[in-house]
């Protein structure tokens, strides 16, 4: 009984913090300066039977080309309430400007609200979603093939950065596709989604974010898909792959979403270290909240490490 009450309280606090954060106004500089060669691509996804908007700053704008089959790129993934017009990374940070001239292309998929950038079992039933999310297929197969054919982006040796909802997704994509993503960063991610309190919080949060039904995503709480998409349980794979990692989370406050995420980040650190992992930077500062200002600062901080890794 005590454990059940504690789990319910944790989920309630997590939801309260989440709904307050995801609805907040941007707290970092919005959009990169005008004049940057940012393109707005519509890439058809056969698995989702629809076009996916992708904001893109490509090889011609990136600076000196890398060796090998095309420019290397960083994929920047959005949060729970991803919009359908622009990526949150573009709305809230000057990410395109930061990478301009570095030799690294920038790929910002647009949309994917509540998707966790994974392949779902079926369309969300509660909000009558007209198609099934197949984001993992899009990001690891359809989009890389399109970018290689049309924008000379290498399908291997790239980086992926996620925040909040997509922090764990970035690690999972790298765990199962180590050739494509040799660098993965999680910023304030929830890295143990198969644990009961986090499962419950995700369920309620997705309902709040436009009525998405988690059962259509990874099934019932005991379904293997939850563990398949759990970075703590895949930490050994990342350790053995040698993927370069950057893991950030701040302590937040008693009712702040960040404090809820911190426990899962510590669990991931322990699992990764126990598996012999030795290629990760763990940034756990003394203060900080679940906010775009901190995620933007972390992207700027990790940028030299990411560039050095994928431009080898």
Automatic annotation (TrEMBL):
<keyword id="KW-0964">Secreted</keyword>
<dbReference type="InterPro" id="IPR000801">
    <property type="entry name" value="Esterase-like"/>
</dbReference>
<keyword id="KW-0012">Acyltransferase</keyword>
<protein>
    <submittedName>
        <fullName>Diacylglycerol acyltransferase/mycolyltransferase Ag85A</fullName>
    </submittedName>
</protein>
<dbReference type="InterPro" id="IPR029058">
    <property type="entry name" value="AB_hydrolase_fold"/>
</dbReference>
<keyword id="KW-0732">Signal</keyword>
<dbReference type="Pfam" id="PF00756">
    <property type="entry name" value="Esterase"/>
</dbReference>
<dbReference type="InterPro" id="IPR050583">
    <property type="entry name" value="Mycobacterial_A85_antigen"/>
</dbReference>
<keyword id="KW-0808">Transferase</keyword>
<feature type="signal peptide">
    <location>
        <begin position="1"/>
        <end position="24"/>
    </location>
</feature>
<dbReference type="GO" id="GO:0016747">
    <property type="term" value="F:acyltransferase activity, transferring groups other than amino-acyl groups"/>
</dbReference>
<dbReference type="GO" id="GO:0005576">
    <property type="term" value="C:extracellular region"/>
</dbReference>
